[in-house]
Description:
CATH topology of the largest domain: Alpha-Beta Plaits
Number of domains: 2
Structural class: alpha+beta
Order of helices and strands: EHEEHHEEHEEHHE
CATH class of the largest domain: Alpha Beta
Strand order of the largest sheet: 1-3-2-8-5-7-6-4
Oligomer: single chain
Number of strands: 8
Number of helices: 6
Helix content: 25-40%
Low-confidence stretches: none
Strand content: 25-35%
Distance between the termini: 35 Å
CATH architecture of the largest domain: 2-Layer Sandwich
Radius of gyration: 18 Å
Amino acid sequence: xxxxxxxxxxxxxxxxxxxxxxxxxxxxxxxxxxxxxxxxxxxxxxxxxxxxxxxxxxxxxxxxxxxxxxxxxxxxxxxxxxxxxxxxxxxxxxxxxxxxxxxxxxxxxxxxxxxxxxxxxxxxxxxxxxxxxxxxxxxxxxxxxxxxxxxxxxxxxxxxxxxxxxxxxxxxxxxxxxxxxxxxxxxxxxxxxxxxxxxxxxxxxxxxxxxxxxxxxxxxxxx
Length: 223
């Protein structure tokens, strides 16, 4: 079950996560930085990161589509792009152990943001919520997110909820100046009564959560 409001347009985001063979991560990242322009010629890349903490040898990338017809056209064009297939896909497939993708929408109260400057780190937090969708947990979840925003230690980039993939999953992307800046901010947030109250109210609707510290690639628009 997944019910509740979403953005008032057809735009969605494809979230792709790849597990890379441990000995091949450096080679994979070099190939992405070198050849990603063949891929971005077809559709918009939001960001491309590799994991530093919370997961090993994993990359995350997010692609924006106007609608499902747009994605279908892009996938068709990519399949017939000789440069993309010959120079990148054929070379990197042996480096990848596993692939996963999800389709997600921005929650209706969130617009995709940008960091105030380059050079920081990103935190990707995945919340598995109880069944029912945003109609069930959306208001309490928004209050918890806003409570963290109001502390001022972190910058919200986006809040996505799944349409295809594991339902009732919410991914939250944050930006911080550094891991130490994030750690200090979290410590302060844990002692903030506003945050504690909001989290207490939302956690009753939560099944599990996981976070990953991400480093943007050179080619990533968000970096």
